[in-house]
């Protein structure tokens, strides 16, 4: 469920406001860093919301930007305080993609293109238990259990009774054919996809092998959008050692156009539902 105070989103909003104040002052990040005797990378990380920000950081930056309105300073200080609270995911320890979880928890809509596996928000427990150690082969057993628990908890956001996540997934056929775990696990997983695709706020489209070359062959990605006008859309690209978050308008626009091409090339929602059902039957048949 969405948190009352989402620390990831608060950091992001605070960073955007601090960047705006810096630009109004006509200063570069390098100039601010020199004034505060810190690295330029720290200023950049504070502004893009990827680093925890303290009230002292806010006070120092407001001093450099000569912000005289105490109401603005107090508001920013409160945002800094809120941003240091812990989201529900922190209870599970060090999660490598915690920034993404914070954004996903707050998002109003999420568009996903996935080429090799079923997205985490749509995975069954059995599929998750098989795919996580397959993709992270040296993961310790206790960490595996935590990741499965986090993945299942994330799924609550899809069916939040007060604000269900608008989910649109374009999925390559290979994710349906690859046997993750066993044919039984795959049959259960694909039956679950059919069930989820019947929800009014969930759309699943399949890109069959016969589609040939398509716009997503350069890699998977997700596009997160938010209700609050102050929160710009984010393109998320998962990496092995680090993740990429694209927020510039031009970057988001390019990926949005790419996603529109993928949706146009994929089977319709109804055709995809039938396609998934046939693939589920093939796994059932393979079980003998």
UniProtKB/TrEMBL annotation:
Superkingdom per UniProt: Bacteria
Gene3D superfamilies registered for this protein in UniProt: lambda repressor-like DNA-binding domains (1.10.260.40)
Entries under Pfam families matching the protein: DUF5753, HTH_31
Matching SMART domains: HTH_XRE (SM00530)
Signal peptide (UniProt feature, chain positions): none
HTH cro/C1-type domain mapped to chain residues: 18-73
InterPro entries: Cro/C1-type_HTH, DUF5753, Lambda_DNA-bd_dom_sf
Cross-referenced PROSITE patterns: HTH_CROC1
Protein name per UniProt: Helix-turn-helix transcriptional regulator
Organism, scientific name: Streptomyces sirii
Lineage: Bacteria, Bacillati, Actinomycetota, Actinomycetes, Kitasatosporales
């Amino acid at each position: 469920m969405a948190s009352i105070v989402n620390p990831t989103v608060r950091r992001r909003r605070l960073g955007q406001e601090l960047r705006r104040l810096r630009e109004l002052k006509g200063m570069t990040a390098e100039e601010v860093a020199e004034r505060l005797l810190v690295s330029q990378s720290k200023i950049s990380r504070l502004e893009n919301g990827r680093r925890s920000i303290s009230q002292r950081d806010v006070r120092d930056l407001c001093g450099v930007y000569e912000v005289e309105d105490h109401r603005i300073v107090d508001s920013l200080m409160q945002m800094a305080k809120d941003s240091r609270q812990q989201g529900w995911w922190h209870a599970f320890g060090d999660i490598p993609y915690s920034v993404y979880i914070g954004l996903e928890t707050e998002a109003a809509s999420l568009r996903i293109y996935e080429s090799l596996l079923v997205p985490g928000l749509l995975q069954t427990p059995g599929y998750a238990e098989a795919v996580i150690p397959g993709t992270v082969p040296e993961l310790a057993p206790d960490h595996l259990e935590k990741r499965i628990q986090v993945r299942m908890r994330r799924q609550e956001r899809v069916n939040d009774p007060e604000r269900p996540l608008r989910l649109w997934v374009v999925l390559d056929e290979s994710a349906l054919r690859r046997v993750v775990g066993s044919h039984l696990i795959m049959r259960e997983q694909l039956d679950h996809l059919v069930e989820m695709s019947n929800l009014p706020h969930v759309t699943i489209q399949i890109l069959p092998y016969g589609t040939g070359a398509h716009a997503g062959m350069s890699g998977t990605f997700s596009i997160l959008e938010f209700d609050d006008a102050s929160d710009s859309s984010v393109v998320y690209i998962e990496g092995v050692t680090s993740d990429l978050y694209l927020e510039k308008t031009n970057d988001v626009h390019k990926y949005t156009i790419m996603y529109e091409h993928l949706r146009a090339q994929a089977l319709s929602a109804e055709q995809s539902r039938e396609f998934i059902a046939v693939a589920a039957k093939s796994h059932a048949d393979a079980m003998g």
